[in-house]
Specification:
216 residues; Rossmann fold; two-stranded antiparallel ribbon; 9 helices; metal-binding; Phosphoserine phosphatase; hydrolase; HAD_sf; magnesium
């Protein structure tokens, strides 16, 4: 069986990309100034589905301008090390890891599919030492920095899973957001990791009569 997990907000208690980018930006007065200047425009763009990729690319470029591919990967590894040493406001959710471990122990194949950059997701998930596959947003060089190439969100997550050979249906899907409605609808047992009646109503309104809400 295949179990599909989102990462930020589902396995993790926060936004890994935002924290990684902020860690890079705040070390450089020039990057910090540039970020503060574009934030009134890029921030709202990130909040809207149709402009999210462009807005994220602006912030990503500012944080990564001048980095080679090797330096980009090293930056992700350094952030993962800071995460392990609890030097950033990010942590794994205990209930999420229990669910993931349950699938691994049952012999299920586990795939983490995330809007975070693949290089960052790989660095973070390596710290878990679990048998999982990772699919995320690909980056490409642009104008001396790095920008989003294929943004792995919404329907694109299903496409990424299909292209990786996982088909169009899976047994389980776990996410904290209805932006991931496509992967929830393709699951036999969809789970939204927000407990309470409000989450149950959201599942019902989305037509996920076989879904459940988990208080993670």
């Amino acid at each position: 069986m295949l179990a599909v997990f989102d990462m930020d907000g589902t396995l993790l208690n926060g936004d890994s990309t935002a924290l990684w980018l902020w860690a890079r930006v705040k070390r450089s007065p020039l990057r910090l100034l540039a970020t503060l200047m574009v934030a009134p425009v890029a921030g709202p763009m990130v909040a809207l589905p149709f402009t999210r990729r462009a807005g994220a690319s602006i912030l990503l470029w500012i944080a990564t301008a001048g980095l080679s591919e090797q330096q980009l990967l090293a930056s992700c590894d350094a952030f993962a090390q800071a995460f392990v040493e609890k030097r950033c406001k990010l942590a794994w959710k205990a209930q999420a890891l229990a669910a993931l471990d349950g699938h691994v122990e049952a012999g299920d194949r586990v795939v983490v599919v995330t809007a975070a950059p693949t290089c960052l997701a790989n660095a973070l998930l390596r710290t878990l030492d679990r048998r999982v596959d990772v699919l995320g947003t690909s980056l490409k060089p642009g104008f001396g920095g790095w920008i989003a190439n294929i943004h792995c969100r919404n329907q694109r997550k299903c496409q990424a899973l299909a292209e990786a050979g996982h088909g169009a249906r899976w047994a389980y899907a776990y996410t904290d957001s209805l932006d991931d409605l496509p992967i929830l609808r393709a699951a036999d047992k969809p789970v939204i990791v927000k407990g309470g009646k409000a989450a149950e109503r959201r599942l019902f309104r989305a037509g996920l009569l076989n879904g459940r809400a988990a208080a993670w």
